[in-house]
Design brief:
With 119 residues, the protein is mostly beta strands. Helix content is 0%, strand content 46%. The strands form two sheets. Strands 2-10-9-4-5-6 form a six-stranded mixed beta sheet, with no helix packed on it. Strands 1-3-8-7 form a four-stranded antiparallel beta sheet, with no helix packed on it.
């Protein structure tokens, strides 16, 4: 059974930093590109970032809205995905999810972790 558990969300002020974590199990984590998604209040799910597998150099891509502020990374030995978020803005307020970026588990989601940026 695929399981994705996101954590690390919090209520922070604009300009703060947070590090989100995603613990993955139930599939061969190292074999899949992984991504972070978010859903802002009243809006649909949007893509934030993807990291490819080590075989593809762990290449990273980002949405323009977070480029230069967010950093995605992975630890294949621990089956963990991370999202370092710096200079947070109110528009980053959302529930954040991790997910495989392709393959048979592409629609899997965890419970998400809430990030609220407010003064």
């Amino acid at each position: 059974e695929v399981r994705l558990v996101e954590s690390g969300g919090d209520l922070v002020q604009p300009g703060a930093s947070l590090r989100l974590s995603c613990a993955a199990s139930g599939f061969t984590f190292r074999s899949y590109s992984m991504r972070w998604l978010r859903q802002a209040p009243g809006k649909g799910l949007s893509w934030i970032s993807t990291i490819k597998t080590a075989d593809f150099g762990s290449l990273t891509t980002y949405a323009d809205s977070v480029k230069g502020r967010f950093t995605i990374s992975r630890d294949d030995a621990k089956n963990m995905l991370y999202l370092e978020m710096n200079n947070l803005k109110p528009e980053d307020t959302a529930v954040y999810y991790c997910a495989p970026a392709g393959g048979p588990y592409v629609d899997e989601r965890g419970q998400g972790t809430q990030v609220t940026v407010s003064s």
